[in-house]
C-alpha cells in the first residue's frame, strides 16, 4: 500500500503489510482529511495519499449515543439467480459517552462497537472417492461423462479400469473413509460449505487534560478484536481449506500541544501500536502421523494435501505474526510575518515476530501420473510430489527516521508558495536470528565459499562473512532527499480565477513481510521436493540418500549439510528505495454563474520493486544424445541440469534450484486530466458536466 494512515497525529499503518490498521467506527471519529499528490514535506513514509483522522474528545457537557444496525436474510428479497434466500444474520451495535471529570480541565470519552456476522456457507463443489472407487471400480470415474467428454483408460496394467483394493494405501484409505464425505456416483461429486461466524469488537477510550491555557495533553487507547474460528466437524476435512482468524490490534497514543509563544506552537506525539494476526487450524484436524505416515511433524493437527482437479485438504497451519511499533514525533510551527515555517521529525521502530509451519508436516500432491486418474493415485498412496520444509521463524527490526522543514510563504496578496525538503534515510530491516543470506554470481564463478557455513555452495555468503552488509539483506542509503514545492495564484486578484501547481518527490518504505522469505533459505528453512517418492504416501523419505533431514538442529551448526536443488530469495546489495515524482496543475475560473475547471495530475515511479527468476531453466530445442540413446533435450525431468548455474558449472549448479531475485529496476507512470463545468444555483437549478 502506498497510503499513509495517521490517527490523532500518530502512525496507524501495519508494518507487516503497510496497509491501514483497523480504523475506529464512525461514532467515535471527529473528522478526517485526505491529501494526495505532491503533499507538503510534513508527510512521508509512503508516497500515496495521507489519510489523517482525529477521534472525538469529551466536553463540559455529558453527551452520548446508542445505535444498532440489524440485517437479516428473512428481510431480504431472494437474488434472481439464486436457488434460495440468503441466510445473513448481521448485528452491528454499540454506543458512545463523553463528558467532564473536572469542568474546563479534564474530559473523558469512550465508545464501543460490536459486530456479529453469521451466515450459512456458499456451496462449494469437490470430487472425492465414491463407494465404487473404494471397491476398486473406476469404470464410472473414467467415463467420458466424468472427464470432459473424453473417456480415459487406467494405465499400469489395470484391466477394465479396475484396481484391486488390496493395492490401496492404508493411510489414504483411512483418510477417505474417516475424514472425507462419500462421493456420489459416478464422478464423486460432493457439495458442502464453511459457515461464516465472525465477531468483531472495538473499544476506544480517550482522556483530555487542559493543563494550562497554553498546554493541553491527551491520551487515547483503541483496541479492535476480530475472530472467525476455523470450521471442521471432525468428518469433512474439505472445509479446512479456509483458515480461521484470531486478530487483535492495540493502538495507544499520548500527545502534548504547547503554545510556546503566541506565534510558536509545539506538538509532540508518542505511539505504541501492536498488531497480532493468527491464522488458525481447527485442533480436531488430523496430522499425517495420525494416518500412519512415517515423517517428523513440526506442528500438530495439520495436513496439507491436494488431489489435482478433485479436492484439497488444509491451507496454512496456525501461524502467529506479531508486530510492535514505537513512534515519537515532534512538530514546530512558527508564524513570522508572511511566513509560516514548520519543521520537525519522526522516529519509528518496528519489530516483527512470527513463525509458520506451512511445509513442516509435508505437502502432498497427487495427479494422474501413476494410474491415469488422480483419485486412483490417491487411493494407492502414490503422490506425484512431496515437499517438506523446516518451521519458518521470523524476527526482524525496521527503524525509520524522517526530518523535514517547510515554509508557507504569502508572497503577495494574490500568491502563496509552499516549499520544503524532507530527508528519509533508508535503514534496511535487520534479522535478530541472522537468518539472511546473499548470492553473488561473481563469487559463484570464482568458487568463493562462506566461512560461516563451511558446506554452503559457492556464491553464498552470510552474516559474519567478509563483505556481507551487516544484518540486513542490502545496504542502506543516507541520500534520500525529497523536495516539495507548491503554488496557489489568483492572477487577477478578484477571487474568480485560481491556478494551483505542485511538484514533489516521495519515498516509499518497504513492508516487513517482504523479508519474511529469507528464513526459508537454506540452511534455516530448508525445503526439499521429492518427485514420485519411492516410499509413497506412508514413507516418503524411504530410499532418499541421507534419509529424512528433519527436524533440523537449532541453532544450525557451521558444518550443516545444504540440500541439492535449494530454493533461495536474494536481494541486490545496492537495492535502492522506490520513489515517486508527483506533479499537478489545476485551474478554476468563474464565468458568470458557471465554474469551469481543469485538473491534471501525473506521476512517475522509479526503482519500483519487483522480482524475477535469476536461475531459470533454459529451453534447448531438438533432441540430444543421452548415453547411448537420443531423447528430447528439454524435459520436465532435466530442469535442474538446464538451469543457468548448472550450465556454468554442472557440479556446483546442482545445489541451486529457483533463485527469486529482487529487481528494483521497474518503473511506472500515470497521467490523467479531469475537465468539468458547473452551473451554480440559479433559478433553483444546478448543472454539473465532467
Describe it.
With about 700 residues, this protein is mostly beta strands. It has helices at about 130-135, 170-180, 375-380, 440-445, 645-650, 650-655; strands at about 5, 10, 30-35, 50-55, 65-70, 90-100, 105-120, 125, 190, 195-210, 215-230, 245-260, 265-280, 305, 310-315, 320-335, 340-355, 365, 385-390, 390-410, 415-425, 430, 435-440, 460, 480-490, 495-510, 525-530, 565-570, 580-590, 595-615, 625, 630, 655-680, 685-690. Strand 1 (about 5) and strand 2 form a beta hairpin. The protein is built from 6 helices and 34 strands. The strands form 6 sheets. It has a 19-stranded mixed β-sheet that branches. A 5-stranded mixed β-sheet has the order 15-14-18-19-27. Strands 2-1-4-3 form a 4-stranded mixed β-sheet, with no helix packed on it. It starts with a strand and ends with a strand. The model has no long low-confidence stretch (mean pLDDT about 90).
Short description:
This protein has 690 residues and is mainly beta.
Major β-sheet, in short? 19 strands, mixed
Sheet-strand content, in percent, reads over 45%
Residues in helices, as a percent range = under 10%
Shape: globular
> What's the rounded overall pLDDT mean?
92
Helix vs. strand class: mainly beta
Give me the number of helical elements: 6
Strand elements, count? 34
pLDDT < 50 stretches = none
Distance between the termini: 29 Å
Rounded radius of gyration (Å): 31 Å
How would you classify the quaternary structure?
single chain
